[in-house]
Amino acid sequence: MNNQIQNNGVERLTSMEKVQAGLAQRYAKERRFRRLGLAAVMTGLLFIALLLGSIVSNGYSAFWQTEVQLEVQLEQADIDPEVSRDPEVLSVADYGGLVKRSLRNTFPEVKGRRDKRKLYEMVSSGAAFQLQDMVMANPDLIGSTVKLWVPADDDIDMLVKGHIDRSKPESERRVKDQQLEWLDELTSQGRIRSAFNTIFFTAGDSREPELAGIWGAAVGSMFTLLVTLCLSFPIGVAAAVYLEEFAPVNRWTDLIEVNINNLAAVPSIVFGLLGLAVFINFFGLPRSAPVVGGLVLTLMTLPTIIIASRAALKSVPPSIREAALGLGASRMQMVFHHVLPLAMPGMLTGTIIGMAQALGESAPLLMIGMVAFIVDIPGSITDPSTVMPVQIYLWADSPERAFVERTSAAIMLLLGFLVSMNALAVILRKKFERRW
Amino acid sequence: MDTIIESSSVGLIKPGVIEPIKVEVQNTISRDDRTTVGEAFVDDPRMTLRNVNVFYGAEQAIMDVSLDIGKRQVVAMIGPSGCGKSTFLRCINRMNDTIDGCRVTGDIKLDGEDIYHPDLDVVSLRSRIGMVFQKPNPFPKSIYDNVAYGPRIHGIATNKTDMDEIVVTSLTKAGLWNEVKDRLDQPGTGLSGGQQQRLCIARAIAVNPEIVLMDEPCSALDPIATAKIEELIDELREQYTIAIVTHSMQQAARVSQRTAYFHLGDLIEIGDTDQIFTNPRHPLTEDYITGRFG
Ligand SMILES: Nc1ncnc2c1ncn2[C@@H]1O[C@H](COP(=O)(O)OP(=O)(O)OP(=O)(O)O)[C@@H](O)[C@H]1O
Ligand SMILES: [Mg+2]
User: Which chain B positions have a beta carbon within 8 Å of A326's beta carbon?
Assistant: First the structure.
């Protein structure tokens, strides 16, 4: 009897020791796993930091633009000889000539056609339009001499920003020695400044980097996404609700489910080809238009939204459905009063993920002509336009050095859009979750 | 020896002081005999259930059960866990329809009307037959909205005053009013388990059902709250018909007039509650109520 108890005591001790020994090992394992996880997170963060760092360091300078101050004499005789103040007359006057004369007056010693052309190339061709806008807005200026800041040419801008090396031999750089002299002269007179680049945020695309802006593409993206959202969210949610709550389980619904899952994996360019064949060639919708882009992106995002929405619906506890049905709610009331509100956060998350995908998509839009060179800001969903990722693609393809920084700046804006969309998703989710 | 000896003291036993009298009983029914013993049918029934079978896929959970539920009475269903009490109860308001792969056969009538008839409106049926589920399942909405939901969808209350009154009376009947009167706008899911159970009872009676099905309504309640609910059941019985599943033999004895004992999907015995608890006729029933089961 005594012996037995002792035996038991001994056994208990050893098993305790076993647990202790194992415990240390278990903790060590956990520590290792935690370190591994931390390392993985760090690596991810490092890559993001690298990516953001390179984009920001390349792109931040695009937010500033070198400007030149011009002193322009607005002669009555040149602009509006009959003093009609007729906008039609004002709009056809030779403002380019006025800008050139102003430059010639600043550097009277410049003679010869080639030298003069070099001088004219110092300022952007946009200067003439800026002058025109100024006069049209305020015709009373005619007859006076105005001072205005106009954007410098992109090569001058690059030089001022340090992207063109002065010390290189003249033949290897785009800014000639003569232009350097003129620039230094202007700088010493205080007629060169670096100003916030509003053009970049308000203009459409242009062949001239200093006149090119992202706004046209941003508006195109917004219109496209608007069409996508208005179509894919209701259709996706309705499809998910039907499949999850109402559809009988049979071979047909199984087939549909398999197909939806397959669609989610179809390369996006295929949707572009489909859009080209169906929406443009068959239905005759306009090319390059956000409405077609939106339709194509709807096809692309629908599977994502449907799958996410179904998962959200599945996660609503069945007891809630039972409670509603048991009280005599119809299926419809059960879904709309209880299940949908609970599934909404998940559905919204899925939708925003789909939208973010759509915002960053370019391949299918190339197929339907949204890659065209479009200067005007689109005013409706049927106007030709492009979208931000395609604009980035176009600029990245351009040879001018000034487009490099604009590409990076556009990427920054695109990322900004994405981040704000995700923030919106979080806010919406919080808002809906507060209703338990 | 071949006859079943009935106890003569059935009617004298008072609820709460029931002691099965085993000595006198001489059971002659074999434990393997699964035909229903006792008085399954009553005069002037509210509901008649005949040859009910329930299948979950290929598994049969209820085997050929027939019984009546009388007017203004409480029928208690007892039996070991997993014997099919909940399943049977859910046939009565067609909640089994909502389970994929669940199939019900047989004949179930409410006031002579076949409730599984294709033309019957399930929604109106379920508004007439209320149910309290085994697991408390309040909506993730406010306490007020939980109770008001049923009356709202059925258009029972037309204005705010009526609705307030329904909510107050329902919560009071369920014995929850004093605990929640200051926090009606807080989520029902934030209540304790027992409070949630009472909230679900309040929610079920708020629509004024004619028949109330209760699946272990007191499983998470303390004796005081249990007494409240039992009082409520007694009160409801004056107008309504009630079927209650319970694991507490005392409770079955206290609140019910008739008791049905289920065993592995079979209805083994059914009869007057007093008789079942004092003089069970089937050995399985006797085993269960004397605690010898298992
Ligand atoms: N949804 C379901 N799908 C498949 N089988 C089920 C389902 N619900 C119940 N069953 C089975 O049916 C049988 C009866 O279950 P039921 O829930 O009716 O038991 P119960 O008597 O209510 O038990 P308890 O007292 O534990 O609640 C069990 O064997 C169970 O496994
Ligand atoms: Mg049960």
Answer: 93, 95, 126, 130-131, 133, 204
**Which of B140, B143, B162, B141 is CA-nearest to residue B151?**
B162
- Model pTM? 0.81
Gap from CA of B82 to ligand 2 centroid (Å): 7
Test the A interface: residue of B92, B94, B126, B210 with most A CBs within 10 Å: B126
Ligand nearest to the CA of residue B78, numbered in listed order: 1
CB contact set of B95 (below 8 Å; sequence gap of 6+):
A322, A325, A326, B126, B131
Query: Using CA atoms, how far apart are residues A151 and A165, in angstroms rounded to an integer?
Result: 21
Helix axes B143-154, B193-205, angle to 10 degrees: 20
B113 phi and psi angles, rounded to 5 deg:
-105, 130
Domains present along chain A, CATH in parentheses? 64-196 (no CATH), 215-432 (1.10.3720.10)
Using CA positions, which residue lies closest to atom 28 of ligand 1? B82
For residue B60, which ligand has an atom nearest its CA?
A: 1
Alpha-helix runs per DSSP H in chain B:
85-92, 122-128, 143-154, 160-173, 177-180, 193-205, 223-237, 249-255, 273-278, 283-289
- What is the pairing mode between strands B59-70 and B211-215? unpaired
Which of A249, A327, A342 lies nearest to residue B140, judging by beta carbons? A342
The CA distance from A179 to A119, in Å, is 7
Which residue, by CA, sits nearest to atom 9 of ligand 1?
Answer: B87
The percent of residues above 90 in pLDDT, for chain A, comes to 45
Q: Which residues of B touch A (CB under 8 A)?
A: 93, 95, 98, 100, 123-128, 130-131, 133, 135, 137-141, 149-150, 153-154, 187, 189, 200, 203-204, 207
Nearest Cβ partner of A436 from B95, B130, B187?
B187
**Dist CA B255 CA B237 (whole Å):** 9
Task: Give all strands of the β-sheet with B113-114 in edge-to-edge order.
Answer: B59-70, B45-56, B102-110, B113-114
Which of B52, B56, B218 should be mutated for ligand 1, with most atoms under 8 A from CB?
A: B56
For residue A279, give the amino acid letter: F
Tokens of B207: 């629509």
Pairing assessment for the beta strands B211-215 and B241-245 based on DSSP bridges: parallel
Radius of gyration of chain B (CA): 20
Residue A78: pLDDT band with limits 50, 70, 90? confident
The CB-side HSE value for B183 (13 A sphere, CA atoms) comes to 13
Edge-to-edge strand ranges of the sheet holding A192-196: A145-151, A64-73, A192-196
Tokens encoding A375: 């200067």
Provide the 10 A C-beta neighbour count for residue A19: 10
pLDDT in tens, B62-103: 999 999 999 889 999 999 999 999 999 999 999 998 888 899
A-chain CB neighbours of B95 within 8 Å are 322, 325-326
DSSP state at residue B236: H
Q: What is the pLDDT of residues A173-192, one digit of tens each?
A: 888 888 888 999 899 998 89
